[in-house]
Amino acid sequence: MEDALRRCVAEFIGAFTLIFVGAGSIMLSSSAGLVGIALAHGLAIAVMVSAVGHISGGHFNPGITLAFVVTRRMQISLACGYWLFQFGGAVIAALLLKWIFPTTAVDAAKLGVPQLNSQIGQGRGLVLEMIMTFFLVWVVFATAADPRGTFKSIAGLAIGLTITMDIFVGGPLTGAAMNPARAFGPQLVQNAWANGWLWYVGPAVGAVAAGLLYEWFYLRRLGPEPVGPPDTGLDEPRPGQTAADV
């Protein structure tokens, strides 16, 4: 129980950081712009995954935790603790943002609540959130769950950059939440629930699809071997090797 609590606290801090920095950047969008918002979210995740990924896995996202449960990589009892602390961190961050920021900034950005662009509608918005979350969870499994991952030691960077890339394409259309906690904290505190189900269903479906696909293809029976030796069909330097070493 003590170890579980320590892991859950790490998840709380990571989720808090994402919402505090991410939603805060949206309320400063006039100066930050899309690039600033994308980098704020990506850097928050990159830093926190690198900092506490060895403690909790660095999920900070109920969708990622769900993918680990569905693929039987996480006990449901621990996952429930993660969900509680992830959502709790999001709510506390949103409350502090509303208290700190000027009312005009809070109201103009609706406290950073994800917004659906009226030009694409709910159906396309749902599919977009599914695809973007698929990218995110695919990278999480490839870098943090797969023991052969070339970039396992810097998984936080790859995960953070995936969030940044997703916001570049989806931010103006759905807010590119990819994370139910990212939506829930500002929604609850600001009491803004328009199209709210999109940021729960979309990330959940995208996360489960990515987790199951990576698990079935690459983790159920570890394979293929990282390219390198001629018997893999692709003779090139292995991870950590230079061409001169071959």
Written overview of the protein:
With 246 residues, the protein is mostly helical. The protein is 70% helix and 0% strand. The protein contains nine helices and no strands. Helix 1 (2-27) packs parallel to helix 4. The longest helix has 28 residues, at 29-56. It is globular, with a radius of gyration of 19 Å. It starts with a helix and ends in a 27-residue tail after the last helix. The mean pLDDT is 91.
Topology:
Layout: H1 2-27, H2 29-56, H3 62-70, H4 76-100, H5 103-109, H6 121-145, H7 155-174, H8 180-190, H9 198-219
Helix pairs in contact: 1-2, 1-4, 1-8, 2-7, 3-4, 3-9, 4-8, 6-7, 6-9
The helix/strand series, from N terminus to C terminus, equals: HHHHHHHHH
User: What's the helix count?
Assistant: 9
Main sheet specs: none
What portion of residues is helical? over 70%
Q: Tell me how many strands there are.
A: 0
Note the main attributes of this structure:
0% strand; 246 residues; mainly alpha
Structure described in brief:
The chain is an all-alpha fold. 70% of the residues lie in helices and 0% in strands. The protein is globular.
